[in-house]
Hints:
This protein is α+β, with helices and mostly antiparallel strands. The protein folds into 3 domains: 19-129, Sandwich (Immunoglobulin-like), CATH 2.60.40; 140-243, no CATH class; 251-355, CATH 2.40.50.140. It is 17% helix and 41% strand. Helix 4 (157-174) packs across helix 5. The longest helix has 18 residues, at 157-174. One zinc ion (ZN) binds next to helix 3. One zinc ion (ZN) binds at residues 40, 42-43, 45, 131, 133-134.
Amino acid sequence: MPAPCYLCGAPSVVDGLCADCYNEEHPLMKVDPLVRLVVCKRCGAVKVPGGWQTIKSSPEDKVTTREEHVSIVLDREIEALGNDLEVTIVETNKLDRVLHINLVARGKSHDDLAPHTEEYPVEIRFDYGTCDTCGMMSGGYHEAIIQIRADERPVSESEEESIADLATDLTVSEYGRDERAFIIEVDDTKFGLDFYIGSEHLARRIADEVEARYLAERKENYKLIGQEKDGKEKFRITILLRLPRFSRDDFIQVSGNLCQVLDMGRGGLACYDLVTREHFTINPKSSRWQSIQFIAPNSAAKEFMVVANAYDQPIQLMDQESFQVVEVESAVLKSEDIQPGAIVKGIEYEGDIHILPSSTEETNDS
Ligand SMILES: [Zn+2]
Ligand SMILES: [Zn+2]
């Protein structure tokens, strides 16, 4: 026969108390009934001790933004005391700057007791401000400029697009880690793109990636732009990235042989030698790199129809634009087993037709 609960006289269960009295004395959690929250009116970031916490949802989406704000603030405000605690948020009243919610907590105040439910009404008051990042952005703050140019040609539209995408992706990946990770402006100039970037760190990440992916030439310049509060000189960096004259699928000469660029990236260039009909790679450290010469853009390639392809005879090809028939040595196509009627691509260079690798031959297909 258990001793009676010393508060109400019912049979006691834990520490001389009945379950109800024990639960009453040991709430499942602690939370302030009035919680204040400062959010950035531009990006929705939440002010937290020591700075601002960025949010994942888009500020245009009011419902998920508010849910995220509430969960950020409750994560901080709720102090869990019970075991196996689960908290459900029930909105009871919503005004522009005030949100009334009921927190329904379920859990155990002691392992020997059954789970029970408690309710905590909370009022959340919203205030609006401008976070550090948005403040700097609207003030035009930028530590770095990246200029994308190309050697003796304008930067192509597809290059501009993929470099802009890359810059956006890297910026997004720095959200929440680098408060100056923003691009205040992208200038599309006659020669290429200029990025105005909040943080030098982000600018360097973008530049590293463009340099590696496009085998770009890189030059850096510092310009004194003023002084910090502590008197230290403040510099802005300009990173110039010059893309090579050639890009993917273009024709170049390497050590005198006509080649097609099949791919470019960290490892260097993946090329196809149209004379020896072999794949090879070459990187800027290679001694042959200096021998590279741009020959023609990929648009110089033409389509030909195979007219005749008999064993040991020159192959006859018909230019699909001029309908002229030309001959190429069968040796160059021997392994490729091309039937009459097939369409192949080729490039005319110094009087010879060089057949491009067929798609099955290409090892680097996008
Ligand atoms: Zn009791
Ligand atoms: Zn903001």
